[in-house]
Every structure is written in structure tokens, then in C-alpha cells.
Automatic annotation (TrEMBL):
Family stated for the protein in its record: Belongs to the DegT/DnrJ/EryC1 family.
Record keywords, A-Z: Aminotransferase, Pyridoxal phosphate, Transferase
Source taxon at top rank: Bacteria
Protein name per its UniProtKB record: 8-amino-3,8-dideoxy-alpha-D-manno-octulosonate transaminase
Matches recorded under SUPFAM superfamilies: PLP-dependent transferases
Entry GO MF terms: transaminase activity
Length: 421
């Protein structure tokens, strides 16, 4: 058996894989020129300036065309987008929102910052929300579900939407990590009542920060636009929507996307198909080779192989300890892998687990719910088990065939050693 690099052997690769920034690694003259145009026009604000370029409007229109959704709103971040979406749906103090146990803290944090309280549903072997567990956390105080397709793998939106329709609650799709994925041919984010995209640094596309809200509902869109812009609705004529400020305005905040962000995001959007095609090709080649060579290796289940974008290959190891050893050994081989979120469900973050906020009396957790919200370490046992045992290999869009060959050989080498240890 070949000696592992972690024990002093020769690494499978001579240098690390490309950094896990899919959009950023393809940044170049297009993004620089687009941003420069805004700066030279001295008009970085999206609604007016000396010579407005209207890049945010162009980005919104492009997303609308490509995703076949009528209403798109550029915002400052995906987190902001989640808060805006919740406000647009009228969700707030005294409401509960179902959140998957496997997600970034921002999903739950946005619920809390919208003055509602998250309740957590377990995952299945897709590592996404388990539709069979939804009924366990459902009560008459739940007003919405946030579905999160983790790392490029679609959620079972058909069953999630059926559940929501049965209970007359909203569905928000947090597509931060998975821009471009589909379920049954429809883009994630366009299936629920409202979807949110991210352009943060390590997302599929990036402008450093930024996000977008997408919806088929004119009413939801207007409320979102108003909340993100101090209660104003400046695009009534653009969308042919009649709306009275006297009757419909309400207090909002400032989550407006800048023109520089819009310019960079628009240039990145033009590279989406290239990024997705490259990632999916490398992902498929690596997984198929590993399936042949290591038939005992368990992969994260995918419910829609056509819709999965192949951004991350999830490998499920038999134990937490083996997963940690597998990760450390692969990283020593210059094959960058990781266990997501320190191997813990999102509710184990102390500020959530202990229900602490910056507000008096830990508002909004101080609401006297009919069905008390209590968090325990064991409340989502499959998430606690599977998150800690799943090792992710990020798939860069700039991998070469030589890279994929070395990745395959390195994983085979490490798995043989780790599984026999």
C-alpha cells in the first residue's frame, strides 16, 4: 500500500487544487471593464447619477429572461434577501419558520432578524431537508419553510411544495450555494413563492457580495422592493404596476444593490453556463471513476442528476473519526476537502442553541408560543450523524483532465489506507 503524504509519503499532487471560488477564479477583463464603466460614469447608485449605466436593472432583466421569472430584485446580499423575503411575506414576531438542520447560520439568522423564530427539520441522505420530517415540527404557528439546496444538490421541491400547500404556508428557496440547479427542469428559486440568490465571494458567481430575489408574484415583489428601499417603490412604471404610496408604503430599510456590484454580477452571469458545464463534467468523471474503483464508497444521494450542478462531490464515510482522518489525509495529498460547518447542525451554533440575540429579553425568542420552541442536541439525529461523516470535494470550473486524474488516484490511495486502518 502506497505511503500517505500525511505520514511522509509523496503527495498525489504537487500543488493544491484551485481555491474554492468558482466565479472568482474566472474573473477577468469583463468584470473589470464593467466596473470601470460605472466608475467613469461617476454613477454608482442604481437609481440616479450624472450618467447612470443601470447595470442592476440589466442584471435583473437578464436573470428574469434566463430563469423565466417575471420579477427580480438585486440586493446587497443573500442574507438581506432572506430578510426582505420574510418581510415581503408578512412574517414576523410570533411566527415560526421551518429551517433545515444542515445550512449556513445566515438562514436561521435571517429568520431571527426578521423577528420570527426558526424550528429545525432533519435531513435525509441527500443532506438536504427531509420532507418526511416536516410534519414533526409543523404547528399552527409555523408560517413558512426555507428550503436550502446544499452545495449544488436539489431539494425535493415537489414534496416540499405539496406539504406547504396542504398547510397553507409559504416556501422560500435559499439558493445561495447552488445558482443554476434545477428540479424537474425548473430552476431552483422559481419553484417556491420566492427565491434568493447569492453573489458572495465563494458562491457559484460572485461580485464579492450581493444577491437577488426572484418571484412570480407581483404583490410579493412590490413588498420586497419597498422593504429594500425605505418603503419606496421606484419601478412602478417599469413593471406596469399601479400602487399608491399613500396606501401601500411601509417602513423599510436600505438593502439596495450598488451599480458596481451589479456590473460585476452581470459580467459573472454571462459565465454561468461555462462554470456549470465545466463543474458537471469534472464531477461526473470523478464520481464514475470512484464508483468503479471503490464500490464501497457511499456518495451523497442526488434526487435529480440532471438538475445537480456538480459543484461538490459528497462522500459519506462510515464514522465521524474516519471522515476526519480521510479529510486530513486528502488535504495532505493536496486534494482540498472539508467537512461542512465543523460537522454540526446549524442549531448547534451557540447564539441559536441558547436563543441569544442583541435585543432586550432575547427578542424574538421571548414570544409566548402555544407550542414552546426548545432546542436539543438530539432533535435532528440524522443531521448530527451525516454532517459529521460527509466529506466534500469542491469541483473547480478550471480543473484540467490531469487534475481530475490526480484527484481520482489520490482518493483511491487515501480510501484504501483509511479503510484498512
Amino acid at each position: 500500500m502506497e505511503k500517505l503524504a500525511i505520514h511522509g509519503g509523496k503527495p498525489a499532487r504537487s500543488k493544491p487544487l484551485p481555491p474554492n471560488y468558482p466565479g472568482a477564479v474566472l474573473m477577468g477583463a469583463e468584470e473589470a471593464d464593467a466596473a470601470a464603466q460605472v466608475i467613469h460614469a461617476q454613477s454608482p447608485f442604481r437609481y440616479y447619477g450624472p450618467e447612470p449605466v443601470f447595470t442592476v436593472k440589466a442584471l435583473e432583466d437578464q436573470i428574469s429572461r434566463d430563469m423565466n421569472v417575471p420579477y427580480v430584485l438585486g440586493v446587497t446580499s443573500c442574507t438581506a434577501g432572506l430578510i426582505i423575503a420574510l418581510k415581503a411575506l408578512g412574517i414576523g414576531y410570533g411566527d415560526k419558520v421551518i429551517v433545515p438542520a444542515n445550512t449556513f447560520i445566515a438562514t436561521a439568522g435571517a429568520v431571527i432578524c426578521s423577528n420570527a423564530v426558526p424550528v429545525f427539520v432533519d435531513v435525509d441522505d441527500t443532506l438536504n431537508m427531509d420532507p418526511d420530517d416536516l410534519e414533526r415540527v409543523m404547528d399552527d404557528e409555523v408560517k413558512a419553510i426555507i428550503a436550502v439546496p446544499i452545495l449544488g444538490n436539489p431539494c425535493d421541491m415537489q414534496r416540499i411544495m405539496s406539504f406547504a400547500e396542504k398547510h397553507n404556508i409559504y416556501v422560500i428557496e435559499d439558493v445561495a450555494q447552488s445558482c443554476g440547479i434545477k428540479h424537474h427542469g425548473r430552476y431552483a428559486g422559481t419553484i417556491g413563492h420566492v427565491g434568493v440568490l447569492s453573489f458572495q465571494m465563494n458562491k457559484i458567481l460572485t461580485a464579492g457580495e450581493g444577491g437577488a430575489i426572484i418571484t412570480h408574484s407581483a404583490q410579493i415583489f412590490e413588498r420586497a422592493a419597498r422593504y429594500h428601499d425605505q418603503g419606496l417603490f421606484r419601478d412602478k412604471q417599469r413593471y406596469n404596476l399601479e400602487s399608491s404610496d399613500e396606501e401601500n408604503a411601509f417602513a423599510g430599510q436600505n438593502y439596495r444593490m450598488s451599480e458596481i456590484t451589479g456590473a460585476v454580477a452581470l459580467a459573472q452571469w454571462g459565465k454561468l453556463n461555462e462554470i456549470l458545464t465545466n463543474m458537471k463534467t469534472h464531477y461526473t468523471n470523478i464520481q464514475q471513476a470512484l464508483s468503479l474503483e471503490i464500490p464501497t464508497l457511499q456518495f451523497r444521494r442526488v434526487i435529480d442528476t440532471e438538475g445537480d450542478i456538480g459543484s461538490n462531490l459528497g462522500m459519506i464515510l462510515p464514522t465521524k473519526q474516519m471522515a476526519e482522518l480521510f479529510t486530513d489525509a486528502l488535504n495532505a495529498e493536496n486534494i482540498n476537502t472539508a467537512i461542512l460547518y465543523n460537522g454540526k447542525p446549524v442549531y448547534m451554533n451557540p447564539q441559536i442553541f441558547h436563543q441569544r440575540t442583541a435585543e432586550k429579553h432575547n427578542f424574538p425568542f421571548d414570544f409566548k408560543f402555544k407550542h414552546a420552541v426548545e432546542y436539543t442536541e438530539e432533535m435532528c439525529p440524522r443531521a448530527a450523524d451525516l454532517i459529521a461523516r460527509t466529506v466534500y470535494l469542491p469541483i473547480s470550473p478550471i480543473l484540467t483532465e490531469a487534475d481530475t486524474s490526480e484527484i481520482i488516484a489520490g482518493i483511491i490511495k487515501v480510501y484504501a489506507a483509511v479503510s484498512s486502518a
